[in-house]
Write a structure and sequence with these properties.
- The protein is globular, with a radius of gyration of 24 Å.
- It has two domains: 221 residues, NADH:ubiquinone oxidoreductase-like, 20kDa subunit (Rossmann fold, 3-Layer(aba) Sandwich); 139 residues, Cytochrome-c3 hydrogenase, C-terminal domain (Cytochrome-c3 Hydrogenase, Chain A, domain 2).
- Helix 2 crosses helix 3, helix 3 crosses helix 9 and helix 4 packs across helix 9.
- Strand 5 and strand 6 form a beta hairpin.
- The N and C termini lie far apart (50 Å).
- It has 379 residues and is of the alpha/beta class.
- Bound molecules: iron/sulfur cluster (2 copies).
């Protein structure tokens, strides 16, 4: 980790990578994959290359509020071939309570020096949320409340990145009854551009992609209506899920370890929130693309969505929807937004049922029969 505050005379990312023995080929491979992860056209790869070759590293102050540090864990375990080198060289991580060697007064002085000497140049990355009850005493660092540290540091920042669900929507600390009065950071920081990168934790390559975008284009990526990068949060898991054909065919896991579970059928009736969750898990996946939660047999719990801890039990169906072939008596959902999105899934299922009913009538007419499997993928 660099201890000296970054300046424009600092080496570029590529220069640092060269010093660490990273080959030109590996560097270009990273630029191409970073561009792909960011959803950029192949023609934009050259811009990524140029930025990392010519621009000094981004000075970053990484703050930790009320959280479990899983975002740091995810970030540091990015599995791209050269990511560990690249990530730690791409940004100038001038302050991070969990990674820095400095401690006590020395560490806090680094943060204050950066604010005083580089106003408007640095990025504040925030992991964790802000407890506001009882004067903010439930999270203090070096004798100061996290709320004060966040306000002081963000005041002269260029951008703010909210890592993970704690910083973006409050996560478990803000779930009812929220004893510490925890709030996401946008409730505290009102006058700075904030990019929200939710997830518990976010996918490492998504975090890398956001940082690469900021470095390459010197601005935040295009955001959706709630401040998430569209490139990573623009699609529902459900739309790219490899179990989708089973959903469409009405083939669902009913109990853990039943025949459907062994055959890899859809987990919707086991509580899967893929139809209401926007994230890159079904495309970028986890652990370098090895797998993802649904690939491992567990439904999505919607960790990148607002208030996901309060949004009903994880193992119950999330909407009162007709499911092909059964009389459903599912639980009610608590969140209107989730209900609206789930209604889309319900409507889709309803359409399939209508098609199925029509198919049966037609079959009665012409003597043929359509199987459930024949309907897969005909959304
Ligand atoms: S409900 Fe879940 S398991 Fe089923 S297709 Fe959608 S995302 Fe995949
Ligand atoms: S599958 Fe769902 S719960 Fe799991 S990490 Fe992805 S968005 Fe979060």
């Amino acid at each position: 980790m660099t201890r000296t505050p970054a300046t424009s005379s600092q080496p570029t990312t590529y220069e640092l990578l060269q010093r660490h023995g990273v080959s030109r080929r590996s560097f270009l491979e990273f630029c191409a994959s970073a561009a792909a992860v960011m959803g950029l056209d192949y023609s934009e790869v050259e811009r990524v290359v140029q930025a990392l070759e010519t621009k000094p590293r981004i000075p970053v102050l990484w703050l930790h509020g009320l959280e479990c540090t899983c975002c740091s864990e995810s970030f540091l375990r990015s599995s791209h071939p050269i990511a560990q080198d690249l990530i730690l060289n791409m940004i100038s991580l001038d302050y991070d309570e969990t990674l820095q060697a400095a401690a006590g007064d020395q560490a806090e002085q680094i943060r204050r020096d950066m604010i005083a000497n580089h106003p408007g140049e640095y990025v504040v990355a925030v992991e964790g949320n802000v407890p506001t009850k009882d004067g903010g005493v439930y999270c203090t660092i070096a004798g100061e409340t996290f709320q004060h540290i966040l306000e002081e540091t963000a005041e002269h920042a260029r951008f703010v990145i909210a890592w993970g669900s704690c910083a973006t929507n409050g996560c478990v600390q803000a779930a009812k009854p929220n004893p510490t009065g925890a709030v996401p950071i946008h409730k505290i920081i009102k006058n700075k551009p904030i990019v929200k990168v939710p997830g518990c934790p976010p996918i490492a390559e998504v975090m890398t992609g956001v940082l690469t975008h900021v470095l390459t284009f010197d601005r935040l990526p295009e955001l959706d209506r709630i401040g998430r990068p569209k490139a990573f949060y623009g699609q529902r898991l459900h739309d790219k899920c490899y179990r989708r054909s089973f959903f469409d065919a009405g083939q669902f896991v009913e109990h853990w370890d039943d025949e459907g579970a062994k055959k890899g059928w859809c987990l919707y009736k086991m509580g899967c929130r893929g139809p209401t969750t926007y994230n890159s898990c079904s495309t970028v996946m986890w652990n370098g693309g090895v797998s993802w939660p649904i690939g491992s047999g567990h439904g999505c719990i919607g960790c990148s969505e607002e208030n996901f801890w309060d949004n009903g039990p994880f193992y119950s169906r999330t909407a009162d929807v007709p499911v092909p072939g059964i009389n459903s008596t599912p639980e009610k959902i608590g969140m209107v937004a989730a209900a609206a999105a789930a209604a889309g899934a319900a409507a889709h299922l309803g359409t399939l049922m209508i098609k199925r009913a029509r198919g049966s009538k037609a079959a009665e007419g012409d003597g043929s029969a359509a199987s459930a499997g024949d309907e897969g993928g005909q959304a």
